[in-house]
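Technical annex, item 7. During the second reporting period the consortium partners agreed on a shared format for inverse folding records so that results from different sites could be compared directly. Each record opens with the tokenized structure and is followed by the designed sequence. A conforming record, contributed by the partner at site C, is shown below for reference.
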């Protein structure tokens, strides 16, 4: 039985991880649950799974959470420090890192430094500090297991392959809700952007999918995870969302990873690795599929993908700047403060002003993150972006 911690347990990834734990009660013991602020749902999960610890990122809610879980006699931890403490407890086999945004980076490092295996769902730590994450994991003998569907696909395809035989890694994208959008991108509303045609995800991730920033972030993530330079990474639009990743070998042959669009599959593989477990997910019926289509991405309408590649090539602190500026811009768009097309404008402007540190420490990365957030806000007023 694996002992697990679920960081971001009330979000979509966390909930699905708990579905898997519920499906396989003899395989997983939930010892830690952590959330940002949804204490009602966190308390419900605690009553069901009876962990040893619950942690709440928003420390102002800790007292209320303690009242909610008082009958259980478990320990309540608060703030970033409390979550870091929770992931270092003895006999913890796997930490599932699914806290949205940059807030997940320090708990992830704490887990790895304690020698824990980590399953990473949130892109930001591997974007902001991926090389440092992988170096620390190698130093501590910890495994970094991807949960993102595309990176899980690449991971499974690459197992047992010599790096010298790989020519290219290919990530696919469904194209989001605006792949064939014929209207004015300037007029796109948050409600429209949140209607993803294939995946059910949190709001920030869904906006990233609409702008294709998610693929820009995934390029950086894949480069760091697998040690492949960005010039050997490619993104293709695949509206059917059945082929999640491909690898091209030096001889020109390809392997592809296919599955139904259900996040429980990559989550479960990371949780059960190196084994595989059965589940109740729908099975892929290849005979029922009419066609597979692939398209080159439109970088004119989706410049966020171009910015992702630029940050990947520059490396250093620039990926952290890209990520931070995008987080601010996406939040402003969701609040109706800026337009859809302002998102890449804000990000590109902040990137252009950044003084790159080529070989950063974690402190340098966190400082770049803070600077980029301030700069992004500086270029956005309450009603409209002025650049």
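Designed sequence (site C submission):
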């Amino acid at each position: 039985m694996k002992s697990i911690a679920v960081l971001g347990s009330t979000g979509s990834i966390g909930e699905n991880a708990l579905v898997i734990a519920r499906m396989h009660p003899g395989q997983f013991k939930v010892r830690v649950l952590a959330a940002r602020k949804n204490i009602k749902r966190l308390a419900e999960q605690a009553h069901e799974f009876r962990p040893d610890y619950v942690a709440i990122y928003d420390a102002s809610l800790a007292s209320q959470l303690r009242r909610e879980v008082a009958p259980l006699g478990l320990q309540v931890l608060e703030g970033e420090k409390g979550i870091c403490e929770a992931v270092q407890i003895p006999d913890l086999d796997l930490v599932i890192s699914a806290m949205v945004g940059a807030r997940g980076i320090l708990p992830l490092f704490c887990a790895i430094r304690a020698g824990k295996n980590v399953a990473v769902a949130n892109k930001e730590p591997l974007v902001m500090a991926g090389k440092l994450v992988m170096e620390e994991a190698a130093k501590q003998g910890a495994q970094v297991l991807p949960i993102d569907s595309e990176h899980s696909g690449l991971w499974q395809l690459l197992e047992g392959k010599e790096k010298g035989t790989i020519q290219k890694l290919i990530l696919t994208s469904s194209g989001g809700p605006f792949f064939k959008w014929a209207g004015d991108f300037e007029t796109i509303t948050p409600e429209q952007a949140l209607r993803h045609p294939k995946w059910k995800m949190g709001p920030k991730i869904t906006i990233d999918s609409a702008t294709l920033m998610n693929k820009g972030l995934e390029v950086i993530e894949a480069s760091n995870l697998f040690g492949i330079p960005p010039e050997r990474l490619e993104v293709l639009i695949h509206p059917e969302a059945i082929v999640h990743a491909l690898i091209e070998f030096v001889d020109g042959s390809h392997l592809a990873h296919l599955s139904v669009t259900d996040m429980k599959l990559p989550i479960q593989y990371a949780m059960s690795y190196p084994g595989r477990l059965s589940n109740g997910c729908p099975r892929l019926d290849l005979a029922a599929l009419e066609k597979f289509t692939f398209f080159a991405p439109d970088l004119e309408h989706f410049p966020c993908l171009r910015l992702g590649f630029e940050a990947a090539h520059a490396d250093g602190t620039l990926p952290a700047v890209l990520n931070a500026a995008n987080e601010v811009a996406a939040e402003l768009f969701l609040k109706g403060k800026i337009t859809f097309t302002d998102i890449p404008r804000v990000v590109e402007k902040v990137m252009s002003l950044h003084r790159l540190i080529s070989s950063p420490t974690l402190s340098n990365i966190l400082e770049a993150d803070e600077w980029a957030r301030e700069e992004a806000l500086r270029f956005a007023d309450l009603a409209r972006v002025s650049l």
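The two ends are 55 Å apart (CA to CA). The domain at 2-146 is CATH 3.40.50.720 (Rossmann fold). All partners now use this format for quarterly exchanges.
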